[in-house]
Design goal:
- The chain is α/β, with parallel strands linked by helices.
- The chain folds into two domains: 1-31; 43-210, Glutaredoxin, CATH 3.40.30.
- The chain is built from seven helices and seven strands; from the N terminus they run H-E-E-E-H-E-H-E-H-E-E-H-H-H.
- The protein has helices at 2-30, 73-88, 108-112, 133-137, 173-176, 191-196, 202-210, and strands at 43-45, 52-54, 63-68, 94-99, 121-124, 146-150, 156-160.
- It is globular and about 35 Å long.
- The relative contact order is 0.15.
Length: 216
């Protein structure tokens, strides 16, 4: 009887080990690709669902990565304009939304400003001080919003650490106290490029200028 009991115990232990190995293997196979918060090569989890949102996915067109959070009043002021820009410049520039430094509902701003469909992708920042690894790496600190501009090859061109609010399209009282960015004039796009896009509103040109390589 003791031999039978001992044999049963050995089988049970062996079975338990096999189950543990299978569970670990399954978890590894079902884990999404590792996230990366390096500004030049970032890859973040999708805001909803599975999968990753990576900078490399958007090669071929300039990319504007706009960071927001549910508590950010300045984000609330600038996002209506960003949504307008994303729709007006669809096919020319990729707009990606990144929820970062979040302390509440990650979908609050995307739902409030109907970013799904307007932006090509929505992502969730990870790591860092408070689910803010990429935001931190771009020098955002505790401030929000933040916008990073990349060229068509994925090269980081510029980082804006204040809100970009359109004051020409009926700025709200909330946006009146937000710092408004003006496009740099030291190295504007070529005259040919500007002529080809002269019908775009000034704010569209501002976004495009900062998403293109500098011209001498």
């Amino acid at each position: 009887m003791r031999r039978i009991a001992t044999a049963s115990s050995v089988v049970a232990v062996a079975l338990a080990i096999v189950i543990v190995i299978v569970v670990i293997a399954f978890r590894k196979s079902s884990t999404p690709a590792a996230s990366n918060t390096t500004p030049k090569t970032w890859s973040l989890p999708a805001l909803n669902g599975s999968g990753q949102v990576a900078l490399t996915q958007f090669r071929g067109k300039p990319t504007v990565a706009n960071f927001f959070a549910s508590w950010c009043s300045a984000c609330d002021a600038e996002l209506p304009g960003f949504r307008t820009e994303a729709e007006a410049l669809k096919g020319k520039i990729n707009f990606v939304g990144v929820d970062s430094l979040e302390t509440g509902d990650k979908n609050y701003m995307p739902n409030r400003h109907r970013l799904n469909g307007a932006f090509v992708a929505l992502a969730q920042d990870v790591g860092g001080a408070n689910k803010s690894g990429l935001h931190d790496a771009l020098g955002g600190g505790n401030s929000m919003p933040l916008t990073a501009f990349y060229d068509a090859n994925g090269k980081l061109l510029d980082v804006e650490r204040t809100a970009i609010v359109s004051t020409s399209s009926g700025a709200t009282s909330a946006s009146a106290s937000v710092t408004t960015h003006h496009c740099p004039t030291s190295s504007p796009p070529s005259a040919i490029w500007r002529s080809a896009n002269e019908r775009l509103p000034p704010r569209d040109l501002c976004i495009l200028e900062r998403s293109l390589p500098r011209h001498n």
